[in-house]
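Tutorial, part two.
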Amino acid sequence: MPSESGSLERLGTDLTCFRCGSDAERAFEGYYGHPGDMYETGTAYCLNEEGTYNPDTNHFACDECYIAIGCPSLATGWVAP
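Running the prediction step on this input gives:
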């Protein structure tokens, strides 16, 4: 199972949506925690699967905000500011 060990300690802050401020637990509710799921928390899901996650800022774009800003994409991948 993928882990989040050390990641948040190194960054020293919670993961949040850059636009609305939702935390990873709320933003990814329903993506984790079910029997057989790979991830037990929204944080673990975000750190391992979320394509918009920016480790430099500890931000991501939740689904609603990503859609609201027009679903940006780049050849190298778009990450939240």
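Residues 7-68 form one domain. In part three we will examine how such features are distributed along the chain.
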